[in-house]
Amino acid sequence: MPVQRNTKRHGLIADIKMRKTIIAILLLGSTASTAALAKNDFGKDLDDQLADCTNKAESTLASIDCYNTGLKAWDAQLNKQYKLLLAEQPAEFQASLKKSQIAWINYRDSYLEAMQNFYRQQSGTIWGITMSEAKLRVTRDKAIELYKLRTSVDMEG
After folding, report:
1. CB 101 within 8 A of CB 82
2. What is the dihedral of CA 43, 46, 51, 56, to 10 degrees?
3. How far is Cα 29 from Cα 13, in angstroms, rounded to an integer?
């Protein structure tokens, strides 16, 4: 019996080492994917358009319009990445992604409502711009997350 336990223990240790090796390989792969993301500059064109617009804006309303236009563009990109991510995926993944997106939409709406209530307490027109920028940022960040997930298994870079 002691020999079998020892053999099982060695097998368990070997299994743990193998799992650690696999995790290390996956982490290295995700680093390569992150480098590929930096090369691709995903969304840089949208950010550049927003920066150009806000730099030219001469009023609070013009700045808010810039952020609203940017929000629409990032929302379109979010929807594009979502559809691309769903494409040709197994039903189990599709169902879990749809469920997570519904939860994210509920989170986004609640979070933005809380932020809006917070900024309404402040005086000054800058807070309208700040709120518009926050709305854009939440959507932008989610679009980038979906893009990263979709391209994380692309080892070709």
Report:
1. yes
2. 170
3. 24
The conformation of residue 59, written as its DSSP 8-state character, comes to S
Residue boundaries of the structural domains of the chain:
1-40, 42-151
Q: Is 42 helix (H, G, I), strand (E, B) or coil?
A: coil
pLDDT digits (tens, 9 = 90+) for 136-152: 999 999 999 999 999 99
Amino acid at 39: K
For domain 42-151, the CATH class is mainly alpha
Q: pTM above the 0.85 mark?
A: no
Q: Is the torsion defined by CA of 92, 95, 99, 100 positive or negative? A: positive
> Are 68 and 132 a contacting pair, CB within 8 Å?
yes
Could you report the per-residue pLDDT of 39-55, keeping only the tens digit for each? 468 999 999 999 999 99
